[in-house]
UniProtKB/TrEMBL annotation, chain A:
Compartments in which it is found: Cell membrane
Lineage: Bacteria, Bacillati, Bacillota, Bacillota incertae sedis, Caldicellulosiruptorales
Domain of life per record: Bacteria
Protein name per the record: Sugar ABC transporter permease
The ABC transmembrane type-1 domain, residue ranges: 70-285
SUPFAM superfamilies: MetI-like
One family name in Pfam for this protein: BPD_transp_1
Family assignment from sequence similarity: Belongs to the binding-protein-dependent transport system permease family.
Automatic annotation (TrEMBL), chain B:
Key words of the record: Cell membrane, Membrane, Transmembrane, Transmembrane helix, Transport
Subcellular location: Cell membrane
Similarity field: Belongs to the binding-protein-dependent transport system permease family.
Membrane topology listed for this record: Multi-pass membrane protein
Domain ABC transmembrane type-1, residue spans: 73-264
UniProt xrefs under PANTHER family: ABC TRANSPORTER PERMEASE PROTEIN MG189-RELATED (PTHR43744:SF12), ABC TRANSPORTER PERMEASE PROTEIN MG189-RELATED-RELATED (PTHR43744)
The protein's name: Carbohydrate ABC transporter permease
Keyword Transmembrane: yes
Biological source species: Anaerocellum danielii
Pfam families per record: BPD_transp_1 (PF00528)
Membrane-crossing residue ranges in chain numbering: 12-35, 77-99, 108-130, 142-164, 185-207, 243-264
Stored InterPro entries: MetI-like, MetI-like_sf
Amino acid sequence: MERQLFKPRSRVFIAYLSLPVLWYLFVVVVPLVLAIRYSLYEWSGGPKMRFVGLSNYVQLIHDYDFWFSFKNNLIITLLCIIGQIGIAFILAAMMTTRVLKFKEFHRTVIFLPVVLSPVVIGFIWMLMYNQQIGILNWILRAIGLGSLVRPWLDDPKLVIYSVSVPLIWQYIGFYLVILMASLQSIPKEIFEAAEIDGADGFKRTIYVILPLLSDTLKVSIMLCIAGNMKVFDHIYVMTGGGPGKSSMVMAQYAYNNSFIMFKLGYGATISVGILVLSLAIILLSRKLMGGSEK
Amino acid sequence: MNIKKIAFKIGALILNILVMILSLSAIFPIVWLIYSSLKTEREFALSIASLPAHPTFENYVNAIKTAKMHIYFFNSLFITVISVILIVIFSFIVGYFFARYQFKGRTLLYTMFLAGMLIPIHALLVPLFVQFKVFGLLDRRITLIFPYVGLGLPMAIFLMENFIRDIPHEIEEAAYIDGATLTQTLFRIILPICKPIISTVVILSALSTWNEFSFALVLIKSDALKTLPVGLTNFSSQYTVKYTQLMAAITIAILPVIITYLVFNKKVIQGLVAGAVKG
């Protein structure tokens, strides 16, 4: 701020800023502090609140189901990084060639699922996966892969992969657009020079485009991790964490504890756990990737 | 040479076909859903992939009659419109003060607002539920406006502040010399200049409000106040599921978003990317 304008009096500041600030304190800051407080109590929502100190956290550390759901979050994140960013990267590389036609159409269409609500995506894929009326099994039968037909969301071994597909599918367009935006900021001469030097499709992608995009890819991976640590809506709609607990994720587990079993204290502990784990994973991966991004 | 050329052409064709298949698979589920919603349950059961032979709006009529989709629709619309207006006004004001003035507590407020982008919303569900219960704010028409505005603010403030900082100071100085008050300068002069960023903020916050699920699930109990995403889950658990009717209900929920996207797609894409990458 190199220059100061004529400065209004402080009561003008207060008049303008107090409503937004109070609003924000009321719905974000105070609850966040309270979450930490509630996590120290055993409490089912009634007037009886029993202070238990850190014992909720001790319980959380020994809670097999919580760590199992954390593992599911990690699996989903990994699949999404590979699926979303991988596919988006290949597509973005193709978008730089003259060979590919209808680029505008592809971009518009692939981005469309991004704007839809996760709940709707969950429903659409639940219908797609449906044993009797699902179009997925219908397609498999139609192309002669009838042996692959199965209850995609009811098989405990398979379900974590089945629920990942809609997540990947929904956000490919998002990463495609991010990568394309960063490719467009690169001078065209670089691609032309590479072409003249004889770098064709594959080589060009690996030696020219990949290094140029590395910073954007890092940002994308961060976004992907942050997004998948809080995944909830899709899972809630498609499986609710089931069958059994096979597709349980951390947010669903926190929701079940808080609002199905009414263990509000422990639910708050799980939420704080999610907060800490997400930040830790983000910092860790940033370190591993050599954080050159902002 | 000729063979090489032909090989290249074939390769290009294959590549185009592959990408086209991928593109179509990105919208096929949505297209399938929409055209299937125009079939009767019987026709759908008979052939799940074919186009409707005699398109009918019967499912839509039922989705409105039995599942009250129109009520959820107007609830979502109401909450979205109010929340977006408030987010725009608040973020414009806060963004302006952050961009233009050094004042006591600025750093603290700034950090507080921006840190909001890192908080996973699920950490707020339990305490907000309790807090709203204490204040008698659960299950009201205005309930959801509170968290939606609060959570929409960080990103919106960030975008506004960045934009306003690049507006030359001379504009305001001229206004002050002409005797304009702060309020006049703010709303008559700066606000119109901010149009492009305001439209980005509107798109971002409208989409996330319209699509939000967790708070709506936890803070609203009565059927008459539910929003579309919760209304949909309600629908599938309460009634014997008629698939085509569910499809009609989902279509009602997504059509406004899809139409908005098709009309303003460049602006929508820009807005979402600006929000994510800068945040």
